[in-house]
Amino acid sequence: MFRSLLIATAATGLAAAAHAQDSGLYLEGGYQYLDIKPDGAESGVDTNGIAARAGYQFNNVFSLEAELATGIEDGEFDYNVDEDEFNFDDNNDGDLGDVIGASGDVGLNYLTGIYGKANLPLTERLDAYARAGYAYVDLDASLVTPGGNVISVEDSADGPAFGAGMSYDLSENLYLKGDYTYYSFDNTDTSGVMLGVGYKF
C-alpha cells in the first residue's frame, strides 16, 4: 500500500513537471529571407533581414506569438508601371499612359505580425508546427527611370499570413528552428524563410 502510494505520488510529480515545461515564455531570433513581389514587378525581389519573435506557450500544443523583422540588405528588381500611376510624365510627351520600364531596389523597413501556433511533437526533440495570423509590412523602393529621373516610393500593406516549420531541441531550453511563411498582402505578395534559435524560459 505504502509502496503504491509512493509510486503514484512520484508519477504525479513527474507529470506536473512535464506539464510545466510545456508552457511559458519563449524568445526567438535569426536570419530572415524575404521574396517580395510588388504590383507591377516582373518577378520577386530577394531581400535579407533579421527577425525576432516573442511568444507564450499555453500547453504542449498551442502558442501565441508576435513577430518583428527588418531588412539589412535591399533587393534589386525591374519595374513596369504606367506613368499615370505615379502621375509622372517621364518622357515629357504630355501623355501619362506610357509604361515606365525602370530598374531599382526594394528595401524592407519592417514587417510585424501576430500568430496562433499549433505544435505537433514528432520525436522527443523534434517538433513540427503550423501558424496563422495577420501581418503588416512597410517597404520603400527607389527607381531610376529611362528618362534619368529617380523616383522614391514608400508603400505598406497588411493581410493574413500562414506558415509551417520545424524545431529541434538542443537542450531543455535551447532549440534550433526554421520555417516558411506566406504573407497574403493586397499590393505585395511576400514569402519568407526564417532560420534561427530559440530559448524557452
UniProtKB/TrEMBL annotation:
Subcellular location: Cell outer membrane
Highest taxon of source: Bacteria
GO CC terms of this entry: cell outer membrane
Record-annotated Outer membrane protein beta-barrel domain positions: 6-201
Signal peptide feature range: 1-20
Chief place of localization: membrane
UniProt topology in membrane: Multi-pass membrane protein
Keywords for the protein's UniProt record, in alphabetical order: Membrane, Signal, Transmembrane, Transmembrane beta strand
Regions that span the bilayer: none
Protein name as annotated: OmpA family protein
Organism: Hyphomonas hirschiana VP5
